[in-house]
Amino acid sequence: MKLLKFLYGITGLAVFLILVWLFAVPNELIQQKIEEAVSRSGNGTMALSIKGIRKGVFFSLSADTVNLSIDDQPAISINDLSINFTPRHLNAGKLAFLVRGKIGTGTVKGILMLPLKGNFKIDKAGLDSIPYLNRFGMSANGHLSSDIILNNNEVEAVFNIPDLNIDNPDVTMIPLINTFRRIQGSVHLDGNDLRINSISLEGEKGFARLKGQIRNGLADMTLELMPVERSLNSLESMIIGKYIISPGYYAVPINGPLPNL
Fold this sequence. Notes:
The protein is an alpha+beta fold. The chain folds into two domains: about 1-150, no CATH class; about 170-260, no CATH class. Helix content is about 20%, strand content about 50%. It has helices spanning about 1-25, 25-40, 235-240; strands at about 45-50, 55, 60-70, 75-85, 95-105, 105-115, 115-125, 140, 145-150, 155-160, 165, 180-190, 195-205, 205-215, 220-225, 245, 250-255. The strands form two sheets. It has a 15-stranded antiparallel β-sheet that branches. A hairpin with a 3-residue loop joins strand 2 and strand 3 (about 60-70). The longest helix is centred in the N-terminal third of the chain and has 23 residues, at about 1-25. The radius of gyration is 23 Å and the shape is elongated. The N and C termini lie far apart (about 70 Å).
């Protein structure tokens, strides 16, 4: 009899909480708290804007569009976002949610644990849906796949772009950038500090490796070039010639502010 009363009590509490969630908690309040949480976690460098937020049963949420900005610059846009509660991590004392959405023609899915930790996978997202890349002074087409680990204001990402195409070949910040067709690597974002662990680039004119960091919009990086010499035209050879270290190996410093786009 006591067990039956206990079950009735638990069921009643669950129904009560769901009704409070659905009818007593305004959508605007939920949106405000989410946006404030992201802003606090990024030390003021990140901002979230949500459009068309809606509640569902069992503490689920959906939104038409979620826009993330970093340093007051658009970073990424996610459409048709859904967030659903999962009890899988309750035994560890953590609230967790399954996340799904679209980034352009690609998808993002993963798990978010409060206060702000998670693992996410991006599959074949169009680069035109990731405006953060514009900070590097280039407009590109291609599809990005990535595994991302979120830990409060820190983000670790491993990524791959197998079909890169640079739209504006006049970019001079990175020599030969418009000749590369495949990029893969890993980066670490901590507030205003973007650390490039290693990024490798491959194209019809050779290989390259990029390392360094971008802090507060200032680049301190080195591009190691290993070109196929016979494939370079005279202008390309002249541009990289002063950076030669040894035959077939060039080290190009990339320093200073990023393009103001």
